[in-house]
Write a structure and sequence with these properties.
The protein has 14 helices and eleven strands. Strands 2, 3, 4, 9, 10 and 11 form a six-stranded parallel β-sheet that branches. The protein has a three-stranded parallel β-sheet with strand order 1-8-5, covered by helices on one side. It has a two-stranded antiparallel ribbon with strand order 6-7. The radius of gyration is 22 Å and the shape is globular.
């Protein structure tokens, strides 16, 4: 099964590369965060599926739980991370465990963390002290779903899995974890990562729509720290060591080839077992951090990384950087792939997204899709609002080039590139 998963990931990567030039991206309130542009040697570390109170596997004999080990190592190196936590998977029964070494090892219909039948040993609901420790020590939190149920169907690999399907169910699950963390810690979560990266939701909606309503950013990653996929070795001791070595050797090779390779990258790791019920990250993390530290990197949370530089294609050397960074906090100025594309011509659809209230762009559009079942671009509701308000000419095509800007919103505009229009915009 590991070979099948590897093949699937490779095929997906090839398809993604092939479609990169054809994929349509829209200006959006929700940006997929994979890496950012920065001249600093700084990267972000993320950990999925915890917290986990059960020991690492193999057990190091210290009596410490998995998440505690990760936190101890991060503290030793002065590193911060973003923990992408779940709430409680104990409600995901009746179910049966799948075969160890396959993606269904922890459950056939659902996931169970940290292990089948041991749900109370993981998740924020029962391990809130670990969550509070994360926050005390400067780490941040992301929403990985209260029950870690995939949003929509994923035929390959997870074809037997139950999904939430309906956006109201997705929102209820997200809100359950969001509210639990807020109530117990006072922390307002601002990011999410969909379980197993499944974006599709029924009725032509996606995780981007759910996150827009949650006021979240989409925390993705650009580098896989490894460890989640078994090595394939039959001997347990050799398999563990092979997985540890793989996690360390790739980082070493990347840094040897290019010391700046990890600048601005978001690294994915696991706070829990891999498919073979081993935890190589518990033993590889210290060496990973040592290599990064010796190369001059600061390892930070995603929130800290975004404070340094929030965009994928524009850094602090841009004269407009401070303004764009401020605008992005409450305006749709970047595309959903987190690029700004400042040299491109501003379109009417993009201008409408800048001017229309967020509720129109999100709630009204989603309600219309749910009511009609039709697929609508993110710009449709914004265009309708701006036309009615007289902010743009009636009948403007969303992909048409802007030829004028409304009075009262802009300083004199020297041109109609995205750079020119955003530079002239006066925040209302």
């Amino acid at each position: 099964m590991p070979a099948i998963v590897k093949l699937g990931k490779k095929a997906k990567a090839i398809a993604k590369t092939a479609l990169a030039g054809k994929e349509k991206h829209y200006v959006s309130y929700v940006r997929r965060l994979e890496r950012v542009k920065t001249d600093e040697r700084v990267c972000a570390m993320t950990f999925d599926d915890g917290p986990m109170a059960d020991p690492a596997a193999p057990d190091d004999g210290s009596g410490r739980g998995m998440t505690e080990i990760l936190l101890d190592v991060m503290k030793k190196y002065g590193a911060h991370g973003t923990f992408d936590v779940v709430g409680f998977t104990g409600d995901n029964y009746p179910d049966e465990a799948g075969k160890v070494g396959t993606p269904l090892w922890g459950g056939t219909r659902f996931d169970h963390y940290p292990d089948f039948g041991r749900d109370t040993c993981g998740g924020a609901l029962h391990q809130m002290e670990l969550v509070k420790r994360m926050l005390r020590e400067g780490h941040s939190l992301s929403n990985h779903g209260y029950r870690h149920i995939i949003f929509g169907k994923k035929p390959f690999v997870y074809g037997k899995r139950s999904s939430l399907g309906d956006i109201d169910k997705v929102l209820a699950d997200q809100k359950a974890l969001h509210d639990l963390i807020l109530k117990e810690t006072g922390c307002t979560v601002t990011m999410g990562r969909p379980p197993h990266y499944v974006d599709r939701i029924d009725k032509n909606l996606t995780s981007y729509d759910a996150y827009a309503l949650m006021d979240y950013q989409y925390m993705a990653a650009s580098y896989d720290g490894g460890g989640w996929l078994p090595s394939g070795e039959s001997d347990e001791k050799k398999a563990t060591q092979a997985e540890i070595d793989a996690m360390i050797s790739v980082i070493r090779k990347k840094l040897d080839a290019d010391p700046d390779f990890f600048r601005g990258q978001i690294i994915f790791q696991k706070d829990g077992y891999n498919m073979a019920k081993r935890t190589p990250v518990a033993y590889a993390l210290e060496e990973q951090l040592r290599l990064l530290t010796e190369a001059g990197y600061r390892v930070v949370s995603v929130e800290e990384l975004l404070e340094i530089s929030p965009f994928a294609d524009v850094g602090s050397d841009c004269p407009l950087f401070a303004k764009l960074k401020d605008l992005a906090k409450d305006h749709a100025v970047a595309y959903d792939d987190n690029t700004l594309r400042l040299d491109a011509v501003m379109t009417w659809g993009e201008l409408a997204m800048l001017l229309a209230p967020k509720d129109v762009v999100t709630k009204e559009r989603i309600e219309t899709i749910c009511r009609t079942g039709k697929q609508l671009t993110p710009y449709r509701a914004a265009l309708a609002y701006c036309e009615k308000a007289g902010l743009i000419p009636a009948g403007s095509r969303e992909d048409g080039a802007v030829t004028a800007v409304p009075d009262g919103f802009f300083d004199p505009v020297s041109g109609f590139r995205r750079y020119d229009v955003l530079a002239a915009y006066r925040k209302q």
